[in-house]
Amino acid sequence: MMYDTLVVQFTKMLGNLNNFLDKSAQFADAKKFQPEVLLNSRLAPDQFPLMRQIQIACDTAKLASARLTGVEAPVFEDKETTLPEIKERIANTIKYLQTLKPANFENARTKQITNPRWEGKHMMGEDYANEHAIPNFYFHMTTAYAILRHNGVDLGKKDFLGTLSLK
Predict the structure, then answer these.
(1) For residues 9 and 43, what is the distance between their CA atoms, to the nearest angstrom?
(2) Domain range annotation of the chain
(3) In the predicted model, is pLDDT for residue 1 greater than 80?
(4) Is the whole model's pTM more than 0.90, yes or no?
(5) Within 13 Å, how many C-alpha atoms sit on residue 161's CB side?
(6) Kind plus residue range of the DSSP H or E element containing 138
(7) CA-to-CA distance for 94 and 65, rounded, in angstroms?
């Protein structure tokens, strides 16, 4: 279950995020401006720009999986400044997630998870996934979507949800 919720769903959503960026590039091209303008956009002055939202979504996906499985995640240096660079980060995050198997999550529910920001406290794996990792990932995905929509990129709920397993 945790594998499906984290690896499968995070991978799908990062693919959707990649599609957002493709639509952003098309929008920028049609309006005759550089797509990096969008990467530096934000909804509020005290909010991270789109680039950072994407970096954090990628980090949340890979670090949550690493903390829960013990499988070391790649380190990204947050140096992206262009659309191709951030798309590469998304691709590399997906590649890491695809190395994980359901068996890697066998003891994840009861694993003790720590974070430097928690000042010596910890969470159990299932609580960490449900209360921190999943909401944090979707917070940054939703904010990225909202920044692009706010700037006029033609995205809708179908873009956010992506392909559904309709029968």
Answers:
(1) 26
(2) 2-161
(3) no
(4) yes
(5) 7
(6) helix 134-150
(7) 12
